[in-house]
Amino acid sequence: MDTCHQLDIVLASGASDALSLAISVLCNEGQNILLPRPGFSLYQTLSESKGIECRYYNLLPDRNWETDLDHLSSLIDDKTACLLINNPSNPCGSNFTRQHLESILSLCEIYKLPVICDEIYEDMVYGDNIFYPLANLTKTVPILKISGLAKRYLIPGWRVGWIFIYDYNNILNEVRSGLASLANLILGANSLIQNALPDIIMNTPQSFHDETDKLLEENAKLSANVLGKIPGLHVIVPQGAMYMMVGINIEEFKDINNDIEFSEKLVQEESVLCLPGKSFHYPNYVRIVTTAPAEKLNEAYQRIKEFCARYHV
Ligand SMILES: Cc1ncc(COP(=O)(O)O)c(C=O)c1O
């Protein structure tokens, strides 16, 4: 935040609203936006509602969900308005290395692409992983950083999010005034919580964040250990956020043809709810949320194990 002037901060009604403002201001109807696959479905909902074409660049499960940069480059044309990246990621639970973020930035330099960087899970990484805010790694690529209170402070219902504008070379002057106008279209973010914001940000003890990250790390390890041993499933061990993607070797299951059928049958037969990968444009995976207490996770994983045993051939 120290590199951002106060005029470069736009408050919004949650990160969702911040994303809506950022997409509206950078993209015109008829242009296209580059979105991650797998990725958070709200990006598509917001973009398509504004007449913007969504183009999905692949993330690579075998490389901790890093971006396939060649694929990304192949999607860019003169109608590409911006790149959206989400780090750490929902649904992947991945956290990009500094080197990978720099490679993405080099590509943005070449194609002169501004970036919407959704960092709502910023700092929520564990193990040896380090979170690098994208905007700290460039002085040339203009960035609209999205974040908010929902995840880091575990208060999704309080509805305050924000955009930080990083634009050292004044490329985004019109965008800056556009955002100010768009932010005034509605009466804005929750005023009660806006008032409490300085206190929340400055005075939340570090121990609160440390405990959250510890719980997420322990739960991620538990989830990867248990689910990784179930025949028919494979896991990508998460590095951050509160999610894990679990691959289904669909050809090894009888009477289950895809991730939607897997999720539907699992909730019907075992009352365990996982979102199908299709919700993130990524078939034959399911997304696990790793925030529940360990005993609840263990119970859910035992049920998943029994469910898989019934259908695995
Ligand atoms: C990647 C990502 N971005 C943005 C949001 C929206 O956050 P908010 O609750 O602040 O609108 C979410 C919520 O799940 C998310 O996962």
Report on this model:
Belongs to the class-I pyridoxal-phosphate-dependent aminotransferase family. GO terms for molecular function: L-tyrosine-2-oxoglutarate transaminase activity; pyridoxal phosphate binding. Pfam families: Aminotran_1_2. This is Alanine transaminase ALT2. Keywords: Aminotransferase, Pyridoxal phosphate, Transferase. With 313 residues, the protein is α/β, with parallel strands linked by helices. The protein folds into 2 domains: 6-203, Aspartate Aminotransferase, domain 2 (3-Layer(aba) Sandwich); 207-311, Aspartate Aminotransferase, domain 1, CATH 3.90.1150. 38% of the residues lie in helices and 19% in strands. The chain contains 9 helices and 12 strands. It has helices at residues 14-26, 42-49, 69-75, 98-111, 173-183, 191-203, 206-228, 259-270, 294-311; strands at residues 9-12, 32-37, 53-60, 66-67, 80-86, 115-118, 143-148, 161-166, 233-235, 243-248, 275-276, 285-289. It has an 8-stranded mixed β-sheet with strand order 1-8-7-6-5-2-3-4, with helices on both faces. The chain has a 4-stranded antiparallel β-sheet with strand order 9-10-12-11. It is globular and about 60 Å long. The mean pLDDT is 96. The chain binds pyridoxal-5'-phosphate. The site of pyridoxal-5'-phosphate (PLP) has 12 residues, from helix 1.
